[in-house]
Specification:
Layout: H1 3-15, H2 22-38, H3 40-51, H4 55-80, E1 84-86, E2 95-103, E3 106-110, H5 116-129, E4 133-137, H6 143-154, E5 162-164, H7 169-176, E6 182-186, H8 189-201, E7 205-209, E8 215-218, H9 224-236, E9 248-252, H10 253-271, H11 287-296, E10 302-304, E11 308-309, E12 314-315, E13 318-320, E14 338-344, H12 347-354, E15 362-366, H13 370-379, E16 384-387, E17 408-409, H14 415-420, E18 422-430, H15 445-455
Parallel strand pairs: 3-4, 3-6, 4-5, 6-7, 8-9, 8-15, 9-14, 13-14, 15-16
Antiparallel strand pairs: 1-2, 2-18, 7-17, 10-13, 11-12
The protein binds nicotinamide-adenine-dinucleotide.
Nicotinamide-adenine-dinucleotide is lined by residues 110-114, 119, 137, 139-140, 168-169, 172-173, 186-188, 191, 194, 209-211, 243, 333, 335, 361, 403, 408.
Amino acid sequence: MNIDLLVKKQQDFFATGQTRALPFRIAQLRKLEQLLRQNEAQLYEAIDQDFKRSDYLTYITELSIIYHEIKTMIAKLPRWAKPKRVPTNLANMPGTSYIIPEPYGSALIIGTWNYPYQLSLMPAIAAIAAGNTVIIKPSELTPRVATVLADLINNNFESDFFHVVNGGVETVTELLKQRFNKIFFTGSTAIGKIVMRAAAEHLTSVTLELGGKSPVVVWKDAPLEITARRIAWGKLMNAGQTCVAPDYLLVHHELYEPLLAALKQEFATILGDDLSNNELFPRIINQRHLERLKRLIEPEKVYYGGVVDEVERIISPTIMVDVAATDPVMQEEIFGPILPVIKIENETEAVAWIRQYPQPLSFYLFTKDKRLIKYFNSTISYGGATINDTIMHLCNNNLPFGGVQDSGLGNYHGKFGFDTFSHFKSVQEKVLWFDPPLKYLPITDWKRKLARLLME
Ligand code: NAD
């Protein structure tokens, strides 16, 4: 469909006010949930074709989170969408003051490929809950998923309310010329800048969900087995192609050797004998990313793994040691199953490592020491953290999910998603039967005195 026309139709539909009605929003969310549930098999098949991903992994990392979000939105929407009374200041008394959440209007959501259902639909759910019209542009790197999403949504929703547009850079560029009221982008920091520049042209509100190098600090008191298991799980899930995956480890020198051995053990256990049929471990998304990852592996620094299967597009889970900040693996977000492990002497050294890079999307710390937790929380800037596990903060929708500066702008999930797609309109209602002369001419001495008393 012609993009100008599609956006115009969505803007016209928004102007009718239909999306503002709560029953409409709730009905659309229910319909979306039903469609996904009825077509789960098709969703699993599409992603398996795109990068050989297991149903189980897709369910726990995408569909379960989507269903939970829809449930939360439907349950909480009536409360969140209500105008909220706030106190009135002295200068406006007598009067009432309140904040009305209102939808921005037409929203554009640009998704990426690593969790292609979740990263397109979670923002869409928030946008619909807040009363917007929605266009999704899924990633072209998962073409079957993009097709299935377009089939499901475009055949079941009116295009003037909710539509999927498929395509690559040209299509996004065309979309970004339009005057949307909200743009929500997930992807790399470099493309995030392009999106933000385009949004600036229309002063469109923008949310950016980007990436970065998410560190894990392991302290000397961390219990070895569970720490290694939780790090290995977070790193290897989706073959390391996770925005919040542990990128590199900073390990207290007393635990360094034992942790390396425990990680090796955990990697081997998770992987089993047949990597090509592993339920946690899909393929590297394409040849370009495989080549990029290959370049990051320096054979003399490999402690474990390092085997590349070009035909199957598999990089065997790899642990690297003795890495320097100038090594290729420490110069970019890894986004694959390669884990550099660095020995540190103390917390100051850990902070110095982390501060060499822009603020990460996530931060992980393994310790029982409350003082240390407080120290890192107040010293390091990051999007979100899990203490004593990896990744898990992402699935708690009572917590805002997003980055800071290079790792993102704004956040979503649960109420935070509703807020992200809403403008908060403030209203001061005043009475007509009382009009103190304080603000009118002539300005006399008693008015000056009273102003000081009432206004501050
Ligand atoms: P990307 O930035 O290349 O692509 C994302 C989207 O941008 C796609 O839909 C693509 O079509 C579009 N795009 C590509 N080039 C464009 C251009 N020149 N102009 C306009 N749009 C363009 O994504 P990627 O690099 O493959 O994704 C990986 C990155 O995404 C990693 O950095 C990862 O950390 C990050 N990520 C972040 C989150 C999060 O929630 N914060 C989630 C997943 C991935």
